[in-house]
Amino acid sequence: MTNPRQRIAAKPSHQEFEFDYGHNVVYFKGDAIHLTPHEADLLHVLLNNRARTTPVDTLIQKIYGASEPQNAAVSIRVAIHTLRKKLRDTGITIKAEPRVGYEIDAEALPEVNRGLSDKILVAINMARGAGEHEIAARLQAAYDLAEAHRRKWHGMRGSTAPAVLKPTEPSTQSQNILRPAA
């Protein structure tokens, strides 16, 4: 019989960091951090533009598109504030560049700094935005190959659950950001 004070260790499905953009959830060390669709969209844009400041106007355009509300800049600022609080324990920080925009610092999570896959995701978004569906499909194949190589590399290094930014289909909650297919 087990002592009621002993904790039964259940292996969480997410060991480190995973951003599930399609479900507006960040998983970190087994815990789920639920984001609003607006927060998830902001995090997605900032992660895709990491290592450089994203101007507020760019955030507004990518989040709202042509349906930009009058208080969009205030909405962005409030969402950044809540994102900072929610992501505090993950090691991700969001820096403000006064009168310019925001920059995400994810150096504490090295796997989030995947250069090749990120560049392919940006290219997929650009191809889809331009209506180049064949190019987008080929880029998706390249993305899948890059991710397979990354997973293989992690397997060789003994990593059990690498962090990933999962590409997903657009949600009905936020149609202005293009999301690559899974």
Structure report:
This protein has 5 helices and 7 strands. It has a single domain (17-166), classed as Orthogonal Bundle (Arc Repressor Mutant, subunit A). By secondary structure, it is α+β, with helices and mostly antiparallel strands. The protein is 42% helix and 15% strand. The strands form 2 sheets. A 4-stranded mixed sheet has the order 3-2-1-7, with no helix packed on it. Mean pLDDT is 74; it is low at 1-15 and 156-182.
Short structural summary:
The protein has 182 residues and is of the alpha+beta class. The protein is built from five helices and seven strands, in the order βββαβααββααβ. The chain has one domain (17-166): Arc Repressor Mutant, subunit A (Orthogonal Bundle), CATH 1.10.10.10.
Strand content: 5-15%
CATH homologous superfamily identity = Winged helix-like DNA-binding domain superfamily/Winged helix DNA-binding domain
Order of helices and strands: EEEHEHHEEHHE
Supply Rg: 18 Å
Strand order of the largest sheet: 3-2-1-7
Percent helix = 40-55%
Mean pLDDT: 74
Question: Descriptors for this entry?
Answer:
182 residues; alpha+beta; Arc Repressor Mutant, subunit A; four-stranded mixed β-sheet; three-stranded antiparallel β-sheet; 5 helices; 7 strands; disordered N terminus; disordered C terminus
Structural topology:
Elements: E1 17-20, E2 25-28, E3 31-34, H1 37-48, E4 54-55, H2 56-64, H3 72-87, E5 93-97, E6 101-105, H4 115-129, H5 133-157, E7 164-166
Parallel strand pairs: 1-7
Antiparallel strand pairs: 1-2, 2-3, 4-6, 5-6
Helix pairs in contact: 1-3, 4-5
